[in-house]
Amino acid sequence: MLSLLKRERQAVTRKLQAPLQKHLNHYLQLIFPGATLSVDDNLLPQALIRPQSSNHQAEEYGELEALSFGAREQMGLVSRLAYADLLAEAGRPTLIILDDALVHCDRERLEQMKRILFDAAERHQILLFTCHPQHWDDLGVAPRDLLTLKMASGG
């Protein structure tokens, strides 16, 4: 009986992993062409696998815990966006709220991550709260200061 339950659990996990992996890979291609982010049996990001060279023959495998804090932050955002895509595919509404996301990115990586956010914004509503509005001036939307909004509303 236990082996039957394990097999059934594995089958369900594989069924869920495939669409999640598709969405993870979609976002990763925007920053790491040829890379994949593997997920474990609990559907949690496990490791980043990137080609070492342009010919994609050698791979670099990195457990999430071994990545820099900034890289883990980026993979976390990619994972959340992939889950949001799954919800949207299921007909569920999505709202993504980011609070000082990507503060540990260097300038070049931040620009790459903005491409991911632009892509996701085509399917999801994204609210971005930040203490660094100058990093987000190029989003096409004027930043709004919450204190100013609060004062204007009489609060």
From TrEMBL:
Classification via SUPFAM superfamilies: P-loop containing nucleoside triphosphate hydrolases
InterPro entries, sorted: P-loop_NTPase
Domain of life: Bacteria
Gene3D superfamilies named in the record: P-loop containing nucleotide triphosphate hydrolases
Name assigned to this protein: GTP-binding protein
Organism in which the protein naturally occurs: Vreelandella azerica
